[in-house]
Amino acid sequence: MSIPTPSLSHLTSADYRHVYEPAEDTFILLDALEQDQAALRGEAPFPAYTNATVASGSEFTGLPAKRPRLCVEIGSGSGCVSTFLGKILGRNNAAILSIDINPRAVDCTRRTGKANDVHLEPILGNMLSSLKSRVSGKQDQDLAEQQGLIDLLLFNPPYVPTPEEEEALAQQDAGIAGSWAGGSTGTRLVDELIDGRGLEQTSVHGIETYLSPGGAFYLVAIRQNDPPALVERLQKRGLEAEIVLQRRAGREHLFVIRALRRIND
Does the keyword Transferase apply (predicted)? Predict the structure, then answer.
C-alpha cells in the first residue's frame, strides 16, 4: 500500500530559513519505512534485504514484528517523517515522540502533525536525554533504569563531515546548521547514540539499551559515514543490522540502516 507524503503546504520559505526542508535524505527514510510498513504495524515479520535496493522476500528468523507502543524520532525538523510514520501506523494508540533541539523545528513538527491529522508529541530537547521525565515520569532516573522502552527509533542525523568546532557551535546554537553539521566523520551524534559516549569511551548504555525487545532502529547515512562500519558497530551491540536501502541523490550516496533487537534478548 502506497503511503502519501505528508502535506507540507502550511510551511513557508520563512520556516525553511530556520528548519531543514525535506530532501532526498528525508525521502529515502520514508521509502524505507514504507517498504517495512506491514512489520511496523505488527502484521508481518521484518523482511531481510539481500540487495539493499530490492526486497528479497526472506525474513529474519526469530525476529517477528510487534505492534509499537512508543515511537521516537530524533531530529524531527519539519515533522515530515514523524507524520509519515503516523500515517503508516494509523490510529493504533502508539505514542510518537518527536525530538528536536531547534525550537522552530518543534513548532513546525507540531503544525505538520496537525495539518495531516496525525497526533504527535513534539519535544524540545537534545537526543534521548529529554525522554527521562517524559517516559519515566522521573527527572533523575538513570539511563539504565529506563532501558528497553522504545519500540521504534528513527534518526536522520546531521551527517555532513565538518570541523569539530563547527559541529559543536551548530549544536550549541540549536539552529538549522545543527541539522547537517556532523563533525569530522559526520557521525558525532550517531557515535553518541550507538555507543553511549562515542567511539573513544564506549558505554554500557548504548543504543540497544533504549530499544524494547523486538524494537527497531532506522538510521540515515551517506558514504562518507562508512555505513558498513556503522552496521558492524550495531551488530557488536547485539542488534541484527543491515543496509535496507541505498540510492544516489546528486553528489550524495544515501543509505538507510535498520537494526533490530531480538524479542528474546
Answer: yes
CA 89 to chain centre: 16
Residue (of 227, 213, 221) closest to 260 by Cα position: 213
What is the b/e burial string over 82-93, where b = at least 16 CB atoms within 10 angstroms of the residue's CB?
Answer: bbbbbbbbeeee
Cell of 226: 562508512
Identify residue 185 by its one-letter amino acid code: T
Beta bridge mates, 41: none
pLDDT (0 to 100) of residue 201: 47
Query: What averages of pLDDT result for each successive group of 10 residues across the chain (265 residues)?
Result: 95 97 98 96 86 43 72 98 97 91 98 98 91 52 60 95 90 88 91 75 73 95 96 94 95 96 79
| Residues in a beta bridge with 96 | 71
**Looking at this protein, which amino acid is placed at residue 7?**
S
pLDDT at res. 144: 41
β-strand pairing of 211-222 with 252-260: antiparallel
Crossing angle of helices 188-195 and 227-236, in 10° steps, is: 20
Domains of the chain by start residue, with CATH = 25-134+146-260 (3.40.50.150)
For residues 55 and 47, give the distance between their C-alpha atoms in angstroms, rounded to a whole number.
7
Output b/e per residue, 207-236; b: 16+ Cβ within 10 A.
bbbbbbebbbbbbbbbeebebeebbebbee
CB 236 within 8 A of CB 206: no
Using DSSP's 3-state secondary structure scheme, residue 34 falls into helix
Whole-angstrom Cα distance, residue 159 to residue 24? 13
